[in-house]
Amino acid sequence: MNNQVSRILRVREVCARTGLCRVTIHTLRRNNDFPEPLKLSPGAVGWLEHEINDWIARRASERSAA
Q: DSSP secondary-structure letter at 8?
């Protein structure tokens, strides 16, 4: 496991950072094209900040490679 310290982002902040809506994030997750969230409680999930940053960086590099 990565020892990198990371904040936990809730869905609203993930949407703001990625420019995606909740439905798109869940669709990408089902297609294994977005990081899986952590279950924080029975009704709450969150994403590790560094995993979201890595996902954004990968998308940007795919654009550069095309």
A: E
